Amino acid sequence: MNIEKYFKIWKQLVSCAAGSYLSNRLESGGYFLGKLVRFGFFLLLIVSIFNYTNTMAGYSKYEVILFFLTFNLLDVLAQAFFRGIYMFQNDVKQGNFDYVLSKPVNPLFYSMSRITDIMDMIFLFPISGLIIFTVYKLPIDVGWENILGYAVFIGIGMVIVIAIHILAACVTIWSVENENTIWVYRDAMTVGRFPPEIFSVTVQAVFTFVIPIIVIVAFPTKTLLGLLSWQWMVFGAVYAILFFAVSLIIWKISLKKYSSASS
User: Each residue of 77-97: pLDDT tens digit?
Assistant: First the structure.
C-alpha cells in the first residue's frame, strides 16, 4: 500500500468532514456539548460510588476512573477515524459501493475512513488530559515502562477494534438486511467501562476470548497499573495479530461473494 497516497486521500476526507461540520456550527457545537455532558455524568457516577466505598473489585477510585477513561479513549478513537463503516450498509444497498470498487483506491480503507468525526478528534484532547491527571493521582508509582506498555496495548487494542469493524463490513456484504452489526460491538464495548473483576469468571472468559473487550480496554489499563503478567501480554499481542489476519481473510472472501447492486 502506498502510504503517502492514502495519507493524502485521508487528509482530503478530513477536509471534507471539517467543511461539513463548519457549515453547521450550532448543530456541531450541540453534538460536542452533548458528548461532554454524557461523559461528565458517567464520571460523576463513578466518583459518587466511592462516597460509599473505598474500593471496587479491589481497585481504588482513580484506578477505576482509569479503566473508564481508557474505554473512552479507545471508543472515541474508533469513532473519530472509522465512522465510515456505519454508512457501509447504505452504500451496499444503494450501489455506492459499486462506485468505490471501480476507483483506484482500497475499498476497505475508503469505506472505513471516508467519514472522519472532527468532534471526536477534538474530544480526544480532554480525555488525554484526564488520563494524565489520573495517572498522577494513582496510589502507586508508575514508571516509564508502564507508560510505554500502556501505549503499546492501546495500539494492540486499536488493531482488534479495526478487525471488528472489518468483520462488521463483511457481515453486511453477506447479509445486507442485517441491521448494523457494528452496534453489537458498541453495546458490548460498554463492558470495558469498569474493571473486569466485577463480572463472573464466565463473563470474563467470553469478553476475553470471544468478544475481546477485556483485551481492548482492560489490558492497557492493567499494564499501566503493573498488574498484567507477561503471559497475558504475549497472549494479547498474538490474539490481536491473529484476529486482524482472520478479519482480512474474511474480507477478501466476502468481496469475492459480493453481488453488485446492478446484478
Answer: 988 888 888 888 888 888 888
The grid cell for 174 is 453477506
Task: Give the total residue count for the chain.
Answer: 263
> What is the spatial distance between Cα 36 and Cα 34, in angstroms, rounded to a whole number?
5
User: What is the C-alpha separation between 154 and 112, in angstroms, rounded?
Assistant: 19
- SS3 for 199-231 is CCHHHHHHHHHHCCHHHHHHHHHHHHCCCCCHH
Does 12 reside within a domain?
yes
Buried b (16+ CB within 10 A) or exposed e, 236-247: bbebbeebbeeb
Q: What is the pLDDT of residues 189-248, one digit of tens each?
A: 888 888 999 999 999 999 999 999 999 999 999 999 999 999 999 999 999 999 999 999
Q: Give the pTM.
A: 0.88
Say if CB 70 and CB 225 are below 8 A apart: no
Q: In DSSP terms, which residues pair with 59 in a beta bridge?
A: 56
How does the average pLDDT of the chain come out, rounded? 86
**Residue 10, class by beta-carbon neighbours within 10 Å (0-12 exposed, 13-18 middle, 19+ buried)?**
middle
Q: 85: which residues sit within 8 A by CB, 6+ positions away?
A: 111, 112, 165, 168, 169, 182
- 74 is written with which cell numbers? 479507545
For residue 235, what are the domain limits?
3-257
How many domains, the chain? 1
Tens digit of each residue's pLDDT (9 = 90 or more) over 24-61: 666 666 666 777 777 787 788 787 878 878 888 889 99
Position 190 in a domain: yes
Model pLDDT, residue 56: 87
Residue 192 resides in a domain: yes
* 25 phi/psi in degrees, rounded to 5: -65, -35
